[in-house]
Amino acid sequence: MKIIVLLLIIINFLNAQIVVVTNKNSHFKEIPKDIIQYIYLAKTNNIDDIKVVPILSSDEKLHNEFCDKVLCKSPSQYNSYWIRLVFTGRKPIAKRYDFNDVVKKLNELNTIAYINKEDIKEEWKIIYEDN
Amino acid sequence: MKIIKHSIKRLLFFYHSLSILKKFLLAPLFGIIFVFPFYVFIFLNTSNMKLNMNYINSELLPLYEISCDNVLLLEKIVNDINSAVSAKEPEWINYSDKNADKIRENLKNNRSKKYNKDIKETTEAFNEYYKTVGDVSKKIIENDYRYYNIDSDTKILVNNYNKVDTLLKNLKSKTKKDIENNINSLSDNTRFILLNGNLVFFIWFLVSIVIILLVYKDIEHKIKRIVNDSKDIARGDVDFEKRLCIVSYDELGQIIKSINIFINKLHKSHKELSRAKEKLDSLYIIDRLTNVYNRIKIDEIIDAELKKQKRYDFVFSVILIDIDYFKQINDTYGHLVGDVVLKEFASVLKNNIRDVDFLGRWGGEEFIILCIQTDQNGALALAEHLKVKIEEFDFTKVGNKTASFGVATCTQNDNAKSIVENADKALYMAKNGGRNMVVSYN
Is the ipTM of this structure higher than 0.85? Predict the structure, then answer.
């Protein structure tokens, strides 16, 4: 019984793994965590001199988990951060897309998005996996 | 060309007519004339500087102050609204209205016409920004950071903010630069005035020195001329032909003029005196009636001839002549006729003596002839000749007359008295011998 519950919990966790993906044909391979942070926090635009466009998800649970696990910020910290960028005239806040739009967006080369690992599609490659 | 020459002449004449003091005053006067335009220029410069100062104080500094103020106010507004959004307090957004109004008021109070355009632009941009920031912030708060147009809204907000921020900071830096430029130009102006002030003084000084030197040289030259001319006049014999050269028409010229007039007067007076002296001289030694030498002159000549005889061994003779029976003429015809006869007698003698002989009246009816460098024979011959001439002459009213002649020749032993005495003795013998004859003293 206990073992089954443990397994279920583990499976749950396994299912909730976040990966950052991009189009298979994008020009870069794996990127480390801190670079992902830089990109999603608008501290940099490029990986290896290639312009990278980050995509945000409108799935609240996914987004919060991504902020937490990958960006290491709480959601409100993330919001405050971006509002500060707006008010100091540096960057506007990006749109958030639902899953279908994310799929469409990933057709363009050099765009990255975060998804649940289970939702991964053939055309994409994983460039970051959260352990 | 002619006009220039004429004007130069007139100027020179004017210069020569100035008094000596005025001549020296020309130096600072010319200095001022040369330097006056510089002073006008410097004066204009200082007025310019004053305008600049006013501009800085009344327009630029206040504008700089409010632009610094505005930059800080904008920062305050941003922080306040940022906090409001972060804390999800829409009410806090309104607290920034006060600051926004302050910014607007600051911009309105600008007094500088030059920045009107910038101010207008800034005001419009700020108003737009403030509206946008209020609306977007409220939207974000209401929608909890997620709504469809958040990207475009925030993009507009970012642009507006950057625009206002840039405009406000530009205003600040522009006014600062303007102030700096004006202050630099003030300092440049001051330096310029100082340098040129020195130059001006230097030029004035130089011009004054040059003119004083010129005037000094001129006066020195004139005085030298006067000195030389006066030395010339003083030197040598009295020469009334010389005058002092007129060197100018000032005080020196006045002195020269007076001296020359004085010399003129002296000359005239001297001429008169000379004439008078001549007249007097002749009166002194000429017998008035017969116009021949009188005794005084004859004595003089005898003395001179004696001296010559002693020294050079010259010889001279004396002839004494007496008109025969002259008293009778006076008694018979009167003194007037007698005077006429005397005159005529004298003129006959005069016309028949030689150039070297001196004829003089020795007494009432006595005449004397001094024969220079003549020995006894020569004198006798002359006497004989004269005797004949007298005999031949027809005297007025009285007809023919005769005279007696006594001749004496001067020897080593004779003096003035003895020579005439000898001639007198000879004459006496002629009278006693029957008159109308020549006797020589032996």
Answer: no
